[in-house]
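ugh ok fine here u go
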Amino acid sequence: MGSMTIMMDGFMGMFIAMFIAKYCDMSIAVILGTFTMKMLSNGFVAMGISATVRDIIQGIFLLTLLVISANAGLIERTRADKAFREKRETDYKAQSAAG
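structure:
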């Protein structure tokens, strides 16, 4: 079980890479994701946070990242629906005022 932390850092780096691969090349995203994960881990060690708390914080970070990634299209779709609804209401009001 001691090697789980090492494996989790690698998995987290890849999850971060998959998240930012939308914005850059995958090879650059892997480097950035791994670097971000190592910076996060080393920062927690430098702050003196215990291994258990570090794992919990990293798990919450991963969960947040996956939730944002899974619902990325939801925000754009909601905005597009709202804009469409407002346009239809404006068109309806203009049509009913004219006729």
